[in-house]
Amino acid sequence: MKRSKKGLSGAVTALILVIASVIISLVVVGFAFGLFGAIGGTPTVTQVGTGTLSTVTSNVTANNKTVTVTYYVATITLHSTGTVQIVSASIVGTNAVATNLPTEPLTAGVNTVTITFPANGFNPQPGSTYQISIGLSDGVTVQAAVTYIG
Q: Which of 37, 72, 81, 131 could form a disulfide with 92 if both were Cys (CB 3.0 to 4.6 A apart)?
């Protein structure tokens, strides 16, 4: 009695192994170079240069009374590797907490943002450098340096 051989030929098996190896290699390279941003992790945000902190004064009229309001505006350039939102900011070592944050999220590339702080109890000195702690929507905190220019 003759047995029949069933199964894959050697050439078909080799072809399947080559295809599987190529797919696995592409996945590894994709993760290594961050091509799978959503799966590969959270974006990295870093400061570009030193930002500025300036004083802004404006007159506000309400109930026929004009009041002069003073606040500070920080202008900071940040580089991001992906999309993330700024959710908080404060000046380190003070009680100054941001009252106005950017509404648009940081996107991949260079982003210039302005953050507004109240003048309550914070009196910066011209030429001094201050650290701003910026909270991001992914839970990461970024430190940014700003120089007060008046």
A: 131
Contact 20, 29 (CB under 8 A): no
Supply 77's token pair. Answer: 């350039």
| Inter-residue contact 134 to 142 (CB < 8 Å) | yes
pLDDT score recorded for residue 119: 87
Q: What is the pTM of this model?
A: 0.70
Instruction: Measure the N-to-C terminal CA separation of the chain; round to a whole number of Å.
Output: 100
pLDDT digits (tens, 9 = 90+) for 68-96: 888 999 999 999 999 999 999 999 999 89
DSSP-derived pairing of the beta strands 109-118 and 86-91? unpaired
3-state secondary structure of 82: coil
Those residues whose C-beta lies under 8 Å from the C-beta of residue 83, and which sit 6 or more positions away, are: 43, 105, 106, 107, 108
